[in-house]
Amino acid sequence: xxxxxxxxxxxxxxxxxxxxxxxxxxxxxxxxxxxxxxxxxxxxxxxxxxxxxxxxxxxxxxxxxxxxxxxxxxxxxxxxxxxxxxxxxxxxxxxxxxxxxxxxxxxxxxxxxxxxxxxxxxxxxxxxxxxxxxxxxxxxxxxxxxxxxxxxxxxxxxxx
Length: 160
Known about the structure:
mainly alpha; Arc Repressor Mutant, subunit A; 2 domains; three-stranded antiparallel beta sheet; about 50% helix; about 10% strand; rod-shaped
C-alpha cells in the first residue's frame, strides 16, 4: 500500500465510525492501547502474585514435612512472612488440600512427619575375644594353642 491508500483508508474509517472529527479517533485509539497495556500488566501482576503464593505454600509445607513440629515464630522466620500470614496460609491450605496438621498455641505439627529430636547416645563398645584353650593330655590343664608344653606339668601338647 502506498501513502495515498493509507490516508484514504483513515479518512473512510473516520467518516464511517466517528464522523470527520479526528481527535475522537485518536482518543479512542489511545484509550484502547492504554487499556490493553493495563490488562497485560494486570495479568502479569496476577500471575506473579499466584506464583508467589504457591511458592510460599510449598515452602511452608516443605519445612513442616522436614521437621514435623515447629513453633510459629521459627516457621515464620524460615519462610520469611509474619506469623499472622502463616496462620492465614495454613488455614487456606487446610480448606483447599487434603492436608492434616495441627496448630496448638504457638506450635504447628503434622502427624506422621514428626521426628524426635536426636539425642546423643553414649554407648560403650564391648569387644569379646574368644580364646580356645587346649587341654593337656597328661594333667588336663587348659593351655594356649600356641604353647608346645603344658604350663602345669611340662608334658608335650599333642597336635603340635
